[in-house]
Every structure is written in C-alpha cells, then in structure tokens.
Amino acid sequence: MSNEHKAEDVANGATGQSPASPNGKPERPAAQEAAREAAPGAGTGSGEQPTRGADPLSAAEARVDAMLIEVETLKGQIADLTGRLLRAHADMDNLRKRGEREKQETARYAISKFARDTVEVADNFARALTAVPAAAIEQNEQLKALLEGVSMTERAFIGVLERHGVKQVAPNREPFNPHLHQAVMERPDSSVPTGTVLECFQPGYIIEDRCLRPAVVVVSTGGPKAAKAPAGDKPAQNAETKAESVGEAETAAEPGDGNDATPGSGGPRSTEGSAGSGA
Fold first, then answer.
1. Residues 119 and 161 sit within 8 Å (Cβ to Cβ)
2. DSSP readout, 205-260?
3. Interatomic CA distance for residues 244 and 87, integer angstroms
4. Residue 112: Cβ within 10 Å count
5. Positions of E strands within 52-169
6. Are β-strands 210-213 and 204-207 bridged in parallel, bridged antiparallel, or unpaired?
7. CATH superfamily, with its number, for domain 167-278
8. pLDDT digits over 120-171, tens only?
9. What are phi and psi of 247, to 5 degrees?
10. Domain assignments of the chain as residue spans, ordered by start
C-alpha cells in the first residue's frame, strides 16, 4: 500500500467516518445498522410520535365506552324487572283480597238456594193458620190446641231461619221499596202518601243484606208524594240471585188476582174494584 492510501485511512479513522464504498459513499459497519434498526422510532423524523405509544389509550377508551353501554343496558333491565315485580305484588294482593271476599260471600250466602226453597214451608204454616175460621177455633178446643201447636212450630221455624241469617220481611204501612217489595196492586187511598204498602199478600225474605224473595204487596195511590226509601234498605243482589228471586216472586202471587209484576216494576196492576175481590 502506498503512503497516500495509508494517510487517507488514518484521516478517515480520526474523523470517525467509514471507509468509502466503491461508488463513493461511506460504508457503515453492520453493528451500527443493526443498532439503528432495533432502536425505537428508528427511521422516523424527530417530530413524530411512536405508533405503539398511542394503542393503550385508544384501547382503554374503547373499553370505557363498552362498559358505559353495558351499564345503561343493565339499568334498563333493572327498571323492567322492578316494574314486573311491583305488578306481580299488586296482582297477588288483589288476588288475595278477591279470595277473602269470595270466601266471606260463600260463607254468608252458601245456603241461599236451600233457604229459598225452605221459606215455602213457612208460607204453608201461615196458610194453615189462616184457613181455619175464628168461630171454629172458639168452639173446638182440640182444634184450638192444634192451631197453637202449628203457630209455635211456625215461630220456631222462623227463629231457626233468623239464626242462619234469613229474616222475614212483612211490610205494613211502610214506604214501598222496589228492592224488597213486589207491587201487584194499587189501591186509591188519600190518607197515606202515594207508594205506601197497604197490605202484604205474602211476606218476603232476605239473607244477610241480599234479597232472597220480595214481599208481594198492595201499594197506595192518590195521596201526597211519598218520601224516598232509605238508601240503607237496598240489599245487595248479584245477577243470578236477582233473576231467581224475581222469577220466584212472580209465581208467588196468590191465584185469582190475575196480576204479576216484578219488584218495583210498572207491570199490570189492579185498582180498588179488583183489589177487594183479589185480596
């Protein structure tokens, strides 16, 4: 090697430059190239941020957004389930109250059909007592004793019915109550207010506060205006019981009067002339 080449190598080593490549550019050692490629942010400008440093922040924001959406979904589910729970509690409470009410009504009106058929026995007792003339009772002591026994049996029977909540309704000189009475006749009478019960053909019966059978009565007409019946005299009736009681009341009128009417209805009614013969 000539002295010029040695001097050039010495100069390059002093300045830290690599030997020049055949094309005139300095050559870099392989160790420097590997270190440069391994360094973070290699090959980027001085003002640029590393790409890997931005990934954790964006991932955290995405997770927060997903958690917020999940929280809102869970809040909606909680509100829906709470509403369902409250409605279920309300339904159960209504069902419990309805069951208690039906239980009480069953206990109070369980014997309605039996009582409706049984009161006809009391009607037969009354017919037996009224069928015997008063003169025959005074003349025959045995007949008198028999009728006294029938009367005692009737009173005992009515007492048994009352102990089970069945009471007799036999109005006389009382205001007409369409919920308890069945008017079959009208009789002119100016001495009493219009709509006053003048005569009771057949007594009625009530069970607790429900009409079992209306009383068949004669009401007055031609008098002063009658006062309204008290609101407390209105018994409770369901559709089935009302229909049955009205149907039986229509057949309960005495034969020969020729007039039937439902309680409080404006059906056929006779006047004084026919009332005297029908009564």
1. yes
2. EEETTEEEEPEEEEEEESSSPPPPPPGGG-----HHHHHHHHHHHHH-SPTTS---
3. 38
4. 20
5. 166-169
6. antiparallel
7. Head domain of nucleotide exchange factor GrpE (2.30.22.10)
8. 898 899 888 888 888 888 888 888 899 899 999 999 999 999 998 899 998 9
9. -65, -40
10. 113-166, 167-278
